[in-house]
Amino acid sequence: MKNWSEEELVFLENNYTKLSIIALCNRFKISRGTLNKKVKQLGLRREQKWNEDKEKFLIKNHSKLTLNQLSGAIGVSVGLVRQKKYFLGLVEIKVDSKWNRESVIREIQKLFENDDQIINSHRVKKNYPSLYSMARTLFKSWRLAIQEAGIDYDLVRLNTHELSWDKSTIINEISDLYLKECDLSSKFCHKHHRKLWDAATRYFFSWRSAIGRADLDYNEISKNILTWNKDTVKSLILQKSDKNLPLFASYAKKNYVKLYGAARTHFNTWREAIEFAGLNYSEINKRANEIDWTRDLIREMLVSMKEKKESLQENIVSSKFPSLRTAARRRFGTWEKALAHSGIDINDTRGDLNTDAYYGKQFEKLVYEILVALNRNIVYQNHIEIEGKIYIPDFIDINSGTWIDAKLSSWGSGVSDTVNKYLLVQDYLEIIYLKSGDRMMSGVKFIDINDFYCSLKKIGRNDLIERVKSIQAYYKI
Q1: Is residue 240 within 8 Å of 218, Cβ to Cβ?
Q2: Phi and psi dihedrals of 367, rounded to 5?
């Protein structure tokens, strides 16, 4: 717990409305939660970012000014301008776009007439991504788009026996579990009532808040956490330190779940718990990057994981052991090559055969073969570090330096994330896609895989075309 000095309190009162939350946290070396608690005690308030005059200005000028110009004129961040435009329904649709509210409704009604089950959100997102994306843009959610088309949403849901979540349904479900004397701790419900937990955290922002809205005492429910105290946390931290086990936060959160949760309850932050135990947090935190991942050490780790029958799927390893996955791709180029070096067949590790993840990987490899066949001077999957951040574009054109990514869909959910991340350090990107049609984004050139067919036929590489068509056949393109 932080002991505030008189000088710090005066500084906080004088600068709370002038500095950002992050700047204040860094200034006092505290967590956001600790800062919020002190701010509440002092009764400090920030001036509202938006008012009626600012909203009127945005409505009048959103189509005339850029985001940066709007941000400067209104006095808020670009992110807040973008967010407010969304909530006010100030959606910008390209002039040449085939989509508007009427065309989305017509397409939904047309699909419903052919097969009512085909327009559940899961299938539409997979088979008609551009329709799904624009429906959510124009109507805020797929459910609202369905209802606007005059269709009962329950008629098209994939699993009609499952609950359609809203706040009252969540509260009723929590109350029913409580009456049945079920364990309502966050950890237990996250594992055994995942859909309820996901809906609760989406609608109420945290499981604790959802429990409170059901008129239940979260502290009483979390008895297993409340049996802990500061000394218990300290003792267990020291035990792990004596055994030379990692104690950096990201590792503790995944591997010492109860200890980490209790530490955050009693100390606000993991760092405070570590320092209460008399340990140097800065030294402990270095261990996150200390492991010297040699090729032999990576091989030894992968073989060991296989013998223990632990998953070797790249996405799972990336979640549980991010440093191993990053080192494997740095040392070997790709995850598959790291497995091959360890004598492990990639197909024995895959849990995603005949899924988007599987075909996405196949398409990526195929795009590389096509570009090489067409004499494009490229390298495959580079591990690039810029200003301390890691970037792994699928390909890099050696001659122009252009970063290139292969995507199953030009309108896929990951495209915007890729573009936003890469354009921070690149002026221009190329995205080669399999389906969903052309898309316009500043600084990005979208290339349909079909555009390569003529060139491939000229050099006699019809085999590559057939392999593309086999993937297209899976998506019924």
Answers
A1: no
A2: -60, -40
**DSSP state letter for 75:** T
pLDDT at 158 over 60: no
Per domain, the residue ranges of the chain are 6-42, 52-87, 101-156, 167-224, 228-286, 295-349, 356-474
How far is the C-alpha of 276 from the C-alpha of 1, rounded, in Å? 10
Burial of 164: CB neighbours in 10 Å, binned 0-12, 13-18, 19+: exposed
Report whether 426 contacts 442 (CB < 8 A): no
User: In Å, how far from its chain's centre is CA 275?
Assistant: 31
Distance of CA 319 to the CA centre of its chain: 12
Cα–Cα distance between 326 and 289 in angstroms, integer? 11
pTM exceeding the 0.70 threshold for the entire prediction? no
Residue count of the chain: 477
DSSP state of 441: B
In the DSSP assignment, the letter for residue 394 is S
Tell me the percentage of the chain whose pLDDT exceeds 70.
Answer: 89
Residue 17 parent element (H or E): none
Q: How confident is the model at residue 382 (pLDDT cuts 50, 70, 90)?
A: low
| Alpha helix segments (H runs only) across 387-477 | 413-422, 453-458, 462-474
Q: Which residue shows structure tokens 């992110």?
A: 79
Backbone angles phi, psi at 304, to 5 degrees: -60, -45
**Is the pLDDT confidence value at 161 over 50?**
no
Instruction: Name the pLDDT band for 84 (thresholds 50, 70, 90).
Output: confident
- Choose among 381, 404, 407: nearest CA to 475: 407
